[in-house]
Write a structure and sequence with these properties.
- Its EC number is 2.1.1.228.
- One of its GO terms (biological process) is tRNA N1-guanine methylation.
- The protein contains eight helices and nine strands.
- A five-stranded parallel β-sheet has the order 2-1-6-5-7. Strands 3-4 form a two-stranded antiparallel ribbon.
- Helix 2 runs parallel beside helix 4, helix 3 packs across helix 5 and helix 7 packs antiparallel against helix 8.
- The longest helix has 19 residues.
- The chain binds 6-chloroguanine.
- The site of 6-chloroguanine has 13 residues, from strand 5 and strand 7.
């Protein structure tokens, strides 16, 4: 998969050299290129923003550096006759980015991310870009970050780990939180009985030591339902339509 990120803070994307994404890059599974938006300005101060028409607080990112930066990205297509990238613009005003979005994006051969700062990017850039590629404005959640960079770190991690060959154990992708619409069950490791620092003895649930795989699976499913009901009741309605309600009735 090819990933391009345009930002005025390219150093913000340095963590993409680390851990799972760094390894995917070194393994040639991901071709990630970070671009400095200011390289596409032409004035001495490398200006990327200006005051909003109509008044209001803050600054707006100017259209010209964005069109030139994105034109540059488009012009470096590995296959000039191939598909354009899907352009992701992270922002609190977008559609919610969730696991289903991550799966959709993981199917695209090429993603470009436009990191806005300040109050956002001049609206004409979205119109310009939509004539050249699919544009998706995506939000991590209902809170405000200073810019898109942290969101790009989160989104690329969620997407890249779904690519074939990136996560060693494909099974670990199946049973985790949000796959299947429920949160993950609680997990334990050795020792089976742990004396905590206060002298309290804390044992692993017996069922997990029973060796009875059917009972363990049933217990874990029950735990997923209980945990989802307690922490994310909003997810249960959606999971119900996916068939989890039948399981709830049976338990
Ligand atoms: Cl994707 N961007 C910004 N700037 N703020 C956010 C966000 C994204 N998601 C939640 N808040």
């Amino acid at each position: 998969m090819r990933l391009d990120v345009v930002s005025i803070f390219p150093d913000y994307l340095a963590p993409l050299d680390l851990s799972l994404i760094g390894k995917a890059r070194r393994d040639g599974l991901v071709d990630l290129r970070v671009h400095d938006l200011r390289d596409f300005t032409h004035d001495r101060h490398r200006t990327v923003d200006d005051t909003p028409y109509g008044g209001g607080a803050g600054m707006v990112m100017k259209p010209q550096p964005w069109s030139e930066a994105l034109d540059h990205v488009l012009g470096t297509a590995d296959d000039a006759s191939g598909p354009a990238p899907v352009l992701v613009v992270p922002g609190p005003g977008g559609q919610r980015f969730d696991q289903a979005t991550a799966r959709e994006l993981a199917r695209a051969p090429w993603l470009a991310f436009a990191c806005g700062r300040y109050e956002g990017i001049d609206e004409r850039v979205y119109e310009w870009a939509a004539q050249r590629m699919e544009v998706r404005v995506l939000s991590l959640g209902d809170y405000v970050l200073n810019g898109g960079e942290v969101a790009v770190l989160a989104m690329t991690e969620a997407v890249v780990r779904l690519l074939p060959g990136v996560v060693g154990n494909a099974e670990s992708l199946v049973e985790e939180s949000h796959e299947g619409g429920l949160l993950e069950y609680p997990i334990y490791t050795k020792p089976s009985v742990w004396q905590d620092g206060d002298g309290v003895t804390r044992a692993v649930p017996d069922v997990l030591l029973s060796g009875d795989h059917a009972r363990i699976a049933a217990w874990r499913h029950e735990q997923r339902l209980e945990r989802t009901a307690a922490r994310r009741p909003d997810l249960l309605a959606a999971a119900a339509t996916a068939g989890a309600l039948a399981d709830l009735d049976a338990s």
